[in-house]
Amino acid sequence: MLRTFLLLAAFFGFTGVALGAFAAHGLKKQLSADYLAIFQTGVHYQMLHALALLAVALLSTQVGGRLIGAAGWLFVAGILVFSGSLYALTLSATPVLGAITPIGGLCFLGGWLCLGLAAWKLA
Fold it and tell me: What's one Pfam family the UniProt record gives for this protein (predicted)?
């Protein structure tokens, strides 16, 4: 789990910075202020959960277990679905894509719940 989640954290961190720069410099004049804010929300949540993946990777060496692994995979799914749907929505101007965004949010919540349960079991 350590290597996998470290690689994913690095990938999502790198692409989050790249997408943030792309939005700030390349999309600023192409998108409305509302769509730019939506894109930046995707970047924000991607970066937060890239850091969460880094924590999961490190925790996997100390705590391990299925809950830690589940948290990591839920964060990955959340980034792909939540942030990915926001990117697709803004770049395609297809508002119906926003309908799947909450599924990604539920994945994020599930990941945090798994981390909390793993912490609870440490006692």
Answer: DUF423
Furthest CA-CA distance within the chain? 53
In the chain, which ranges are E strands? none
Whole-angstrom distance, CA of residue 46 vs CA of residue 83:
6
Question: Do 67 and 30 contact (CB within 8 A), yes or no?
Answer: no
What global pTM score does this model have? 0.95
Model confidence pLDDT, tens digit, residues 66-108: 999 999 999 999 999 999 999 999 999 898 989 999 999 999 9
The CA distance from 62 to 54, in Å, is: 13
Structural domain for 27, as ranges: 2-121
| Segment 32-40 long-range contacts (CB within 8 Å, at least 24 positions apart) | 35/89, 35/90, 35/93, 36/90, 38/86, 38/89, 38/90, 39/86, 39/87, 39/90, 39/91
How many domains does the chain divide into? 1
Distance between alpha carbon 14 and the CA centroid of its chain, in Å? 12
CB neighbours of residue 96 within 10 Å = 8
In angstroms, the CA 76 to CA 34 distance is 26
